[in-house]
Structure to design on (258 residues):
């Protein structure tokens, strides 16, 4: 199986099914963003602090694996030059819908976040990556490419799943029972029993990959980034979040040349 091809079609279906992360922002949200009033998410609930953002007026922003008509249009309305990059054509169409509706200039590009070869080195001031590396096998390759396409002094903002989210038996967790079952790194392709994988594929659900903190955080550092800020967030209606947050959001920078 080609995980990228499978997840592309799975997310196309998620758009059809009205997934929360495929719902375009409304006109009021765009109008407010044009006045500098906005909040966007890297994780599920907590908005990204305003102090994390560089000046957005005329900034070149790559919304990485960020289709769905949400973050990209808001940043464009706030004055940025936005490129939305995503694996799913249907997700990108949501951004095109808002751009046409609100007369926003947004470029959309389909592709693999681990391969940004269509972009020249040092093309962007900000890479904004909401919680989507969970659908990618090689997260270190994503960090390396994000570092390459950022200008010196540029910022990477990303949301990730905490590895603890993936160690428990999902069926039992849905019953409120937390039973440590899987090791990290986790992969739907290799960690769960075949019958569970077959059921997941039959339902057309996206494949997920639970990366280690060494790869999620250490991988950013190894790529050259300096992590400056971090916060955690909870997944609503998850038994785990009575005890531990499921999400991590980070802000990292590509240092200026000496």
């Amino acid at each position: 199986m080609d995980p990228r091809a499978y997840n592309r079609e799975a997310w196309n279906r998620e758009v059809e099914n009205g997934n929360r992360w495929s719902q375009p922002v409304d006109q009021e949200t765009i109008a407010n963003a044009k006045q500098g009033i906005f909040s966007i998410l890297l994780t599920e609930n907590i908005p990204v602090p305003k102090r994390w953002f560089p000046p957005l007026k005329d900034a070149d922003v790559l919304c990485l694996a960020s289709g769905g008509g949400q973050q990209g249009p808001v940043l464009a309305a706030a004055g940025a030059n936005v490129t939305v990059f995503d694996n799913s054509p249907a997700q990108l169409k949501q951004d095109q819908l808002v751009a046409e509706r609100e007369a926003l200039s947004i470029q959309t590009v389909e592709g693999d976040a681990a391969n940004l070869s269509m972009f020249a080195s040092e093309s962007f001031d900000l890479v904004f990556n909401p919680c989507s590396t969970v659908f990618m096998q090689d997260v270190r390759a994503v960090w390396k490419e994000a570092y390459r396409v950022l200008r010196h002094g540029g910022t990477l903002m990303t949301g990730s799943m905490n590895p603890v989210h993936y160690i428990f038996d999902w069926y039992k967790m849905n019953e409120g029972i937390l039973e440590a079952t899987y090791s990290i790194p986790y992969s739907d392709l290799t960690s769960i029993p075949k019958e569970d994988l077959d059921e997941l594929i039959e339902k057309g659900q996206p494949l997920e990959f639970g990366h280690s903190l060494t790869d999620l955080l250490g991988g950013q550092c190894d790529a050259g980034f300096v992590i400056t800020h971090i916060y955690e967030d909870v997944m609503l209606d998850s038994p785990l979040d009575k005890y531990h947050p499921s999400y991590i959001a980070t802000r990292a920078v590509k240092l200026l040349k000496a």
In short: The mean pLDDT is 96. Strands lie at 60-64, 81-86, 106-110, 124-129, 150-161, 186-187, 209-210, 226-233, 247-253. The chain has one domain: 3-253. Residues 230 and 250 are 4 Å apart (CA to CA).
